[in-house]
Every structure is written in C-alpha cells, then in structure tokens.
Amino acid sequence: PTPSRVDVRGPLAAGDVVVLRQNANPGWEAEQAGAALEPVVVDGWQQGWVAAGGAEVRAVFTPDRGYRIGLLTGLLALLGLAAVTLVPDRRWDDGHRPAVGAARAPLALVLGVAAVAGGVLAGWAGLLLALAGCLVAAVLGRRAPDSAPWVLAAFVLPAAAAYALRPWGGADEWAGYLDWPHYLVVLVCGFLLGGAAGASGRRGPPISFKRMKGSSTAR
Question: Residue 10 — very low, low, confident or very high, per pLDDT cuts 50/70/90?
C-alpha cells in the first residue's frame, strides 16, 4: 500500500487498535463501515485508530490530494516558463523606458528577518543556516552578483532532486522524512532574503542580453 491510502482487512473486533507504521498526524483519517474512527497514538509515534467492528478499515492521508495538485501545478508553471523563454525577444517592446535602479535593504534588518524565519522553520539549526545564507547572498550581491544565481542553484537543485528521487508514495522512504533537504531549503530562504541587502546598486537590468551578431537593430 502507498503511504497516502491504506486498506486493512481481516477479522476486527470492537476495541481492537489498528496501527499504521507512519508518524501520527492529524492529516490521517480512517473510517469503518462509513463511520469515522477515533485516532490514537501508539508507542509514542505511530498512527492508530480504535476499531468499531469487523468491517474493512480504510485510512487516507487527506493532504495528499493537495500535495499532488501542487506538484502538477508546479510542473505546468515550469512548462509555461520554458515556453515563454522560447519566444523571440524582438516581440517584446520595452518602450525605451529608463532602467530602475536597484534597491537595497539595511543588512541588519534583513539579518533579523532571516534569523526569525529560520528559527521558526527549523529551530536553532535553521536560525544559523538562514543567517549563513543571508550573509553569503549579501557578500555575493556586492562583490560578485553574476555568481549569485549559480550559488542559489547549487542549494536548490540537491533539495529538489531528493524529492524527485524519493517522491511521496514511492518504493523508497519519502524525502520528507530526511533532514538535509529541509535544511537546504532554509538556507535558500536566507539566501533569497540576503539578496535584498546585497543588491549591487548599479542601474540597469541584473542580466544583460547582448544582441546576436548579424541581427538588425532597426524597428
């Protein structure tokens, strides 16, 4: 059975405890003969329910549907982004508007926000990781802004790969049970916040697109 849906068959008497080898979570719901069962925690961590009779017990992790819809939405958004990048740039008219200068938030303020956010997400370890990511982004934004996207990708891709290789309901343990992908995400959050303090302050777009050799400049 997949971790999102479990069917328990067999002789069950009223008062028997049906145990699922999954962490206790309010998202788990079970029913027997159309009636909801009372949830219990077994051995301090396992999800269980008190059976009401001999009918089949069906357990469902209710947030699973939203999780899968979110994955599908992200995939569609990624495909849409890929399609937009293939549109030739000459179709977009910038109207010759002047570039807006980059804004920079006070580093102390950004560090404070990163510390609070990291602490809420992952405790003391998250606080330290968020601060580290924030400082790295701030330094890169001032000294090597062109390298910041590559560093960000180096943090994001391993975490994304963990969920791709160990998806929900797969044969291996779900990546959500691992610690290090979550810590990488906290580091990324700090890095993104640090980008607000490390903006270079130079005018013009952050990425420069050069006109290809031989293309016309006439409109």
Answer: low
